[in-house]
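Colleagues,

Please find the record for the four-part complex below.
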Amino acid sequence: MKVAVLGSTGYTGMVLLRILANHPQVAVVMPASSSRAGAALRDVDPGLGAALHAKCDGELVDLETVRAAKPDVVFSALPHLTSSKVCEPFFGKSVVIDLSADFRVPDAALFTRAYGEPPPRVDLQLDSCYGLAEWYGKEILEADIIANPGCYPTATLLPLLPLARKGLIQGKIVVNAFSGISGAGRKEQINLLFHERSENVNAYNPGTKHRHWSEIHYHLSRSGKQLPMLFTPHLVPIKQGIAVTTSCSLRDGVSEEGIAAAFKEAYGTRPFVRLLGSTIPETRWVRNSNRCDIGWHVEDQELLLFSAIDNLVKGASGQAVQNMNLRFGFDETEGLRTYGEF
Amino acid sequence: MKVAVLGSTGYTGMVLLRILANHPQVAVVMPASSSRAGAALRDVDPGLGAALHAKCDGELVDLETVRAAKPDVVFSALPHLTSSKVCEPFFGKSVVIDLSADFRVPDAALFTRAYGEPPPRVDLQLDSCYGLAEWYGKEILEADIIANPGCYPTATLLPLLPLARKGLIQGKIVVNAFSGISGAGRKEQINLLFHERSENVNAYNPGTKHRHWSEIHYHLSRSGKQLPMLFTPHLVPIKQGIAVTTSCSLRDGVSEEGIAAAFKEAYGTRPFVRLLGSTIPETRWVRNSNRCDIGWHVEDQELLLFSAIDNLVKGASGQAVQNMNLRFGFDETEGLRTYGEF
Amino acid sequence: MKVAVLGSTGYTGMVLLRILANHPQVAVVMPASSSRAGAALRDVDPGLGAALHAKCDGELVDLETVRAAKPDVVFSALPHLTSSKVCEPFFGKSVVIDLSADFRVPDAALFTRAYGEPPPRVDLQLDSCYGLAEWYGKEILEADIIANPGCYPTATLLPLLPLARKGLIQGKIVVNAFSGISGAGRKEQINLLFHERSENVNAYNPGTKHRHWSEIHYHLSRSGKQLPMLFTPHLVPIKQGIAVTTSCSLRDGVSEEGIAAAFKEAYGTRPFVRLLGSTIPETRWVRNSNRCDIGWHVEDQELLLFSAIDNLVKGASGQAVQNMNLRFGFDETEGLRTYGEF
Amino acid sequence: MKVAVLGSTGYTGMVLLRILANHPQVAVVMPASSSRAGAALRDVDPGLGAALHAKCDGELVDLETVRAAKPDVVFSALPHLTSSKVCEPFFGKSVVIDLSADFRVPDAALFTRAYGEPPPRVDLQLDSCYGLAEWYGKEILEADIIANPGCYPTATLLPLLPLARKGLIQGKIVVNAFSGISGAGRKEQINLLFHERSENVNAYNPGTKHRHWSEIHYHLSRSGKQLPMLFTPHLVPIKQGIAVTTSCSLRDGVSEEGIAAAFKEAYGTRPFVRLLGSTIPETRWVRNSNRCDIGWHVEDQELLLFSAIDNLVKGASGQAVQNMNLRFGFDETEGLRTYGEF
């Protein structure tokens, strides 16, 4: 397998390179960057060391070079709206795993609400599928474009989908999510400086104002009855990790056992979801892992859901590789860690 | 004024000593500790330096010494159930400002639910009042025992009370709170070590399981109609600070203007509450300050409330001194900071 | 007293505003900024709150406004080489306390080595003095321009000067310094992002390469015999604080008692230096304080010195106010904290 | 291969389990603990997840069980002086890789100075060797007991040994080392709490007072001429990582090229040492990696050395597995990461 990474100098690109360097099915990795093409990888990402030596030349390459090499897979870690433009030469030729939002929300109104303009390539929508690996395995197997889910949507949808699809919950869904700072990207912004984020916590873009609200809402609605949902993200001073606390009500007659059974049915055999029952997950338990940990708490007819992922792994680059594994029929866990930190 | 601090070696005690050292109305401070009596303050709390020199002997004293000195005010930073026992000699003689939970929840069932046994001194309940300074100023003026509120209840009740008292909200109240690690106290516990808390976020004691649920529920219910409330605290890796995100619904006919007006009426002239409108507060803005910052977001008939305090200042020791100021007729801001960090 | 702060939107400016807001001798504060003039202070520095309300209009002002107001003191928190240019209108009219490097190193070669061009205003050098408050009190009393020392030089010189001036040490001086990230300023740089600095430690500009080497070397040399000195700074993931560990040798015949006596003679009565003997200071003990803590360790004829300051307080804005206090004959501690955190 | 880990509930034990779970040559892992035998691994180390499932029963076992199983390798992550006692049943039967200090310093006086009593098993000293993998490969191949080096000694000796052995340096060696908090172990101590360590930096046990001074001094002296050495460790608020800055002088006639050549000769082909020349390493570059990064700076005849490792990987568990790999003739990098974080 020959794979390329577009946008190698951002955080998701850096994680992709680390995973691909150690992926047994990947023989050639092409780290690409429009702004830094020609630069030595060791200068751009000094921590990577010699890990990729056997699989690449040690230099960032430009788009033309990638194009000429005809890679089997192109991972795009580029910004939304830019991504589908830059990937144009690869559509129909390579499998494109797009970590941007460009193919995640086919609904034009919802996409526009979030990104200010319509989804860029509706013409390709039929060739694409949403890469929430635990739910769209069959579609992934046949897709030429895989829309890798956002970090918040992954952590929010995984606990909600088994319950929403079976109609076990009702009423307003109140989602509070807490993200590490890498989720904001590698940008030269005052409000992302160590001094501004350390010893600091705050909510932002509450209710329906965050772009990921559209993505969560769209994929939740596909599961059946449309439930009102408020999504409030918060920044917390950790490098990597997302925790989500979700509140909703059980439908009449639904018991704690029903909840547990639905989770078991959905995820009981899946390598990257761990069901914790009444134990509440901590983000360090999934740090550097492609796992999503899920716990829950039932009180009368109220339900609280707790989920935790590493935003850069299961919430981005790890799931992208999981999608590649599924797409090409490799073992789903190939190259990915199932264990976290301590 | 002669004041004593019981429990000087915990975090709230340490903050109390710093505030009292610089309080213009306080001439003598007696830092007491049962476990470390006789120890030099400079060994127990090296950061304090010479700040208290003019007001104390530089040594931790025992209870007997405090008793003999007949202080005007006794601040108790002792654990719940212990506090009211140790304060016994001072009831009726000094004004007792109790930072423990012992007098916060007069309802026996609610107190027992939280602390495992009935409130210890119901006989003194009439002499006590709840020291949420912005709401009980008149009662504080006459109380001999002031039950200083918990950190989570302070940050949760301040945004909710103006709305609940006026009946502007309805439905289930979903509270998600995020606390710095000092909120767990200065205890030799593995789960409070730097390595376990750094780069880690998690919920704990969700729904109605945290002790502060009883305190919030009790004082919210006193405001009128009883609303169902879920309270889920989270630990975030900061030293000091609490942020609270609260979700509920507006009563029919209530508008964003009505919310703003209720806040203005309640807090417009109060020095320690800042109303931010649609700006969402960050915990660093109130760090080391006795201020509570409040913001809100209305969307259709849904309301999101955002509040931030320093858990050790407005959430504990600062509010305790604010209560002393109110009780003795000093300027409410005496010795207290109204500005935070950056 | 009417005072102005040039460069109010950087970290040192923000600390200055906090100290001046509470300084009893300061009636009017003019927060100035060339880039943000006209902006509301509450937007630029939301943590400040209403603290300055009684002393300013709540808006950042431009240079012209400051000029017209004829302030008694101008604090310049501007970058080096810019500062002396922008302060031009105030020389000879206001006391200028310059937190930049422009007047710190009169030696042309040393200054040029550090800043790439000669010291900008040698013509004013005679009107200026180095504002290391514990050593130049007499000069400060008469200076119209006070060159406020750098953060590293303050923390390095305070433990070394009493020994170097008395000739108690010999041989190579090896200085290792560790600074919080605010020391690098409030700049939109990738390498200052939370993700890059958190969980990270590294040295930079070692030996004689850091600009502050020139400043330390110059003022150490003025104390007598010129000793070779290596200065290696490190970035550590804290917001504020500098710790310095210095190694050198004792002159023959000098004992631990001699060292202790020299420290006592230099600082025994000074409010902002605390001598800890064999106790090693921690940066949290001086956090938010204008204090420098000093400890030492003697082993055979080897000496290790340990010092700690808050880089933004004693290392910048606090010392600037201390200098104002000294210059105008106020109590040296007016408006400044002598205690740190815990 | 069947391997056991004694002391599975400490930080080094937790890292060992993660590495061994993924080591291709290890079929059975026995996680042992005297205090928690019988407990489920998922409760003791929730982050580990199912990673070890195929290689162990998911429970901590007791010593008797380990003994009966006759493991090929016993990793002991027990405290010094305890370790050699508990390992008694395995000496001569399994290869013992001892992460404690018990076999690191054969010199009785130096060991006693550090640990308060003589080295416990001098009778076994001949069967043991010091497991600094880059220097004692031949001895490791034949040893039955491998004394895995301390974290500080690993990071300090790797840059110094190539120069000391060739006699390229002279004069006093001044070592300043900076360690993440996990280096202090997983102990219920107030001074390791998040609140005490976060936003804090300090030196401790300076000069020759830290136990690792003896270890460094002993192994440095074996390299030839005995050079005086001061070693001052510091705690910095990161979870994992050690940076070391070392100052010494070049022997007359030694040039920067000579230094570079010595490094290249020693490490040019070694997978776990990266030579950076004048680039200074950052701890994040080696985080979670078994690599040691080394940089240097020459100025006149002064030399500054910079090294960085992950204290729990190359400084403990990673090097232990590297030693197992060498001892059993596996590829040296098997199961170990050569890349760090970003």
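The interface with chain C takes residues 11, 14-15, 18, 21, 45-51, 198-199, 271, 274, 279, 282, 284-289, 291, 337-342 of chain B (CB under 8 Å).

Comments are welcome before we finalize the supplementary table.
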